[in-house]
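Our consortium's second objective concerns turning raw sequence data into structural hypotheses that experimental partners can test. To show how far this objective has progressed, the report includes one record in full. It was chosen at random from the queue rather than selected for favorable results. The single chain below, 208 residues long, was entered without modification.
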Amino acid sequence: MIKLAVFDFDSTLMDGETLEQFAQDSVLRQKLKAITDSAMRGELDFFESLTQRCAYLKGTPASYIDEVSSKLPYMNGAKELIAELKSRNIKTVCFSGGFDIALEYAKKELGFDAYFGNFLHEKDGYLTGLVGGDMMTSDSKGTMLKKLQDIMGVTKEETMAVGDGANDLSMFKYAGIRVAFCAKEVLKKEATIIIENKDLREILPQID
């Protein structure tokens, strides 16, 4: 029986990549996308990719980031899946290499119990291009999941992890049920469940 379900955010609970949504023009969006895609395939170290991408946002108004965060498109079925899991007394947590400002809005909309992410440093109302937080490296999700399991008294077999990219491999290590959702090949190889359609509700028949 599952007692804890942990989710990636970008391209899992959210339909897209937060950093690309933050880009103010198409040229920058393509630069960020290229770095993101490389990291999610496991070709580029996650810490390096994160710091590179955030540096491109230097000078962006913090008010713009807040506005975009409040309007992010959530994945089809995300709200319904989380509601169903919570009805089964399963704790739902989001682990994201993305940002608290977006996760706070998502928590209110989707209803998950808690989140762990990063923050974009700002000064005088503008982003400085610096980033910090709990999810900075490729191992961060796994490290945090193990800590949560220890605190909650939850085993690997009682844990489900859902993600799409290489930086989700570390949390797969501590999950008995490993869901690759519209995922890169590097993650599918370690999954127990593979979902190819953009509808998170398709997970439910697999765990009943």
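The partners drew two points from this record. The first strand starts at residue 4 and ends at 7. The CA atoms of residues 11 and 164 lie 7 Å apart. Both points have been shared with the crystallography group to help prioritize constructs.
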